[in-house]
Amino acid sequence: MSQRTLLLGYCVDSSALIDLKHYPQDIFQTLWNNLEGMIISQGLLIAPKEVLKELNRQDDEISRWAKQHTQMFIDLDLCQTQELSNILKRFPNLPDFNKTHADADAIIIALAKCKGWSVITNEKHSRNLQGKPKIPDVCDHYNIKCLSLFDFFRVQGWRY
To answer: 55: domain CATH number?
Structure first.
């Protein structure tokens, strides 16, 4: 395995983290240990702080877990701010302005683009770049690898 392969990480969307609730920590301990290793030891699983805000709208096991792993949630830097601006110019309908809270989708894509990393989301393609695109649609446009949670598990070689 090359050094470059070892350094590639993942920017995770709220939808993927929320879907982890289907894998209780007391039953899928190895999964959660693997995720924590990627966060704590390797720093290869990150999300923008806006994802933490989205998760904190609920008081459940995922929001409590996220609060214990705040180091994975990072602030915007200059590169991400510039990419975010470019993404929103190209895809003005990407944010869901009907939501009463911040929408992290474009920020996740900007983060992945700046890092050269993949995105993990459980959103599906809308195939509607002019209407309301989804994360996978915009990732395809920018040639950013976009994985579902299961695809991520497969890439990691994780079996449970």
So the answer is: 3.40.50.1010
